[in-house]
Amino acid sequence: MYHSETSLKPRLQPKDYHSAEVFADERRAIFAESWHPIGVASAIRNSGDYLSADVMGVPILVRNFDGELIALRNVCAHRQCSLVSKAAGKSEKLKCPYHGWEYGADGRTRKIPAATNFPQFDRDEYRLDRFPLEQCGDMLFVKLSAEGPTLQEWLGEYYDSFRGWFSEPDFRIAASRRISYPANWKIPVEASLESYHIPEVHPMTFGEDPGEPGSDHFFTDHGSSFHATLAAPRFIDRALRVWERLLLGFLGIESQGHYRHYHVYPNLFVSYTDSLSLVHFVMPVSPTESVGCAWHFGRAPAKRGWIRKKIAGAWGKFTGGLSFQVLNEDLHIYPKIQSGTVAATKPGLFGRCEERLYSFQDFVYRKMNNVDSVTESAAPELQDQQPASCPSDSECGDD
């Protein structure tokens, strides 16, 4: 069911997708207090394990210090050398490869070679910046500012569901992927918010747009969601659904055939089915570039046995391949949209089925113009609908 009774006029202008000035303002107004997924805790379970990533232009490393996970700026306080260069690894000490300065969990120096060269050294002034780090299940999230909401506040109604979908005993990480998008970050975000493009862009995977009879849209202050029953328009889809039900039954899991897609403003997506949960995060890089980071969680068996464990692992890798294939299928269309925004002289139009795009653009518009209330929204009927979290199938209203 759609909520809008008419088509909708976009809230953003074409220049908002390529302007350097707009991009700089977005970093301040939209992302300064947002949380960013950076990896999984299970990948750094041992002391000395670390992972690193560039988050909104800030190099960050997350390291296990004797069981405590800490997020620090990946830049030595001495001569600004990167402390680690790999995306993941293990080191006995957090030591700069240039001059050997060592650091502890608090970001302060632990050892400086030939320390007499630095008389009256101030360990508090020359220390590594530390960033807020929180977990939701196995997923690690970092924030660049100490201000703003906690992770649970940021995820809102979705938090409890996500915590279960991102961790054992029900799910375990199966694969991850980083994809370069040749487009402004809002373009892949908007492509993820509607099914209208499926017949043209995803004919071999999703196949068909379920349309209004097969779709339910929900809106909250934190984002929106799309609920549907998995369609099987082709023979191969129907055969795959049969095999999925049989396999899940062997693993001790009841197959409901539901698909859930959640958007947390501004740029976090979570997809959920009986077999998988997928975290998809769109990271802004420049006015015309972004990066997609994806973590695929496969379903863990509900019954014991090494055979079930092996089958669940293989199924997780297979469904992960399908998830990443869907993300890759959008890649060829992004440059065409990006170039079109430069040539466009006015915004386009949203159909009723694209109302989630309107909700997203309205969020961006209000953030950029410092409008706290939704009363200035051109389509207030999209706000404060049924909660977008779905703890039980009986509460979803889409059976």
Key traits:
single chain; 399 residues; alpha+beta; Naphthalene 1,2-dioxygenase Alpha Subunit, Chain A, domain 1; Rieske Iron-sulfur Protein; 2 domains; 7-stranded antiparallel sheet; 5-stranded antiparallel sheet; 9 helices; 18 strands; 24% helix; globular; disordered C terminus
The CATH architecture name of the largest domain reads Alpha-Beta Complex
N-to-C order of helices and strands: HEEEEEEEEEEEHHEHHEEHEEEEHHH
SSE class: alpha+beta
CATH topology of the largest domain: Naphthalene 1,2-dioxygenase Alpha Subunit, Chain A, domain 1
From the alpha carbons, calculate the radius of gyration and give it in angstroms. Answer: 23 Å
Q: Helicity, in percent? A: 10-25%
For the record, the CATH class of the largest domain is Alpha Beta
How much of the polypeptide forms β-strand, as a percent range? Answer: 25-35%
**What is the assigned CATH homologous superfamily of the largest domain?**
Naphthalene 1,2-dioxygenase Alpha Subunit, Chain A, domain 1
* Basic shape: globular
Tell me about this structure.
This protein is an alpha+beta fold. The protein has two domains: 260 residues, Naphthalene 1,2-dioxygenase Alpha Subunit, Chain A, domain 1; 99 residues, Rieske Iron-sulfur Protein. 24% of the residues lie in helices and 26% in strands. The protein is built from nine helices and 18 strands. It has a seven-stranded antiparallel beta sheet. It has a five-stranded antiparallel beta sheet with strand order 5-2-3-4-9, with no helix packed on it. A hairpin with a 2-residue loop joins strand 17 and strand 18.
